[in-house]
């Protein structure tokens, strides 16, 4: 597609439920990143995929968070047993090559009530 | 290790005045440096980037930034602020030898006063 597409744009969920956030990167972009932006804070790195290499999961805050990238394209970020502190905007970005500068999606605003 | 410090979480300027948003970085290797802008309820958009070519980088919407190695700075400037410049601005650093991950500053919210 022309840009990075994220869905849903907004998600309200009850504490303890699982959620899945989807990212569809720009076609041909080999690098895909997930970031979290909490209210009043900067961007927190979560996970990075590059081609067929093992993902860099060093930013995932707990084992409730996981992500996969199927076929080197679409990525899904899953949060299990959501907590209120998970409420944030989750941003996905893709890049043609690492370090070339990201193109960001519009994000998914997650609210855990 | 890489990190970015943005001085001033909030900056206000009058319309037509100079915009100066500060960014200092630390990097153990030659860095790539970026400025991103985030308009309300939107994703981040790349304004400009430095990747070891010219030290003065021109970006979109009249913004520019100068890489100063001696000061480890990459401040963002615009000669004349416009109302439409009101947004959140993020500076980011990436190690040039890998580019695996960007390290973002905490952002500066720019308000333009009419």
Describe the protein in words.
- The complex is a heterodimer of chains A (113) and B (114).
- Chain A is globular, with a radius of gyration of 13 Å.
- Chain A is 0% helix and 47% strand.
- In chain A, the strands form two sheets. In chain A, strands 2, 4, 5, 8, 9 and 10 form a six-stranded mixed β-sheet that branches.
- By secondary structure, chain A is an all-beta fold.
- Chain A has no helices and ten strands.
- Chain A starts with a strand and ends with a strand.
- Chain B is mainly β and 114 residues long.
- Helices cover 0% and strands 53% of the residues of chain B.
- In chain B, strands 2, 5, 6, 10, 11 and 12 form a six-stranded mixed β-sheet that branches. Chain B has a four-stranded antiparallel β-sheet with strand order 3-9-8-7, with no helix packed on it.
- In chain B, a hairpin with a 5-residue loop joins strand 7 and strand 8.
- Chain B is globular, with a radius of gyration of 13 Å.
- Chains A and B meet through strand 5 and strand 9 of A and strand 5, strand 6 and strand 11 of B.
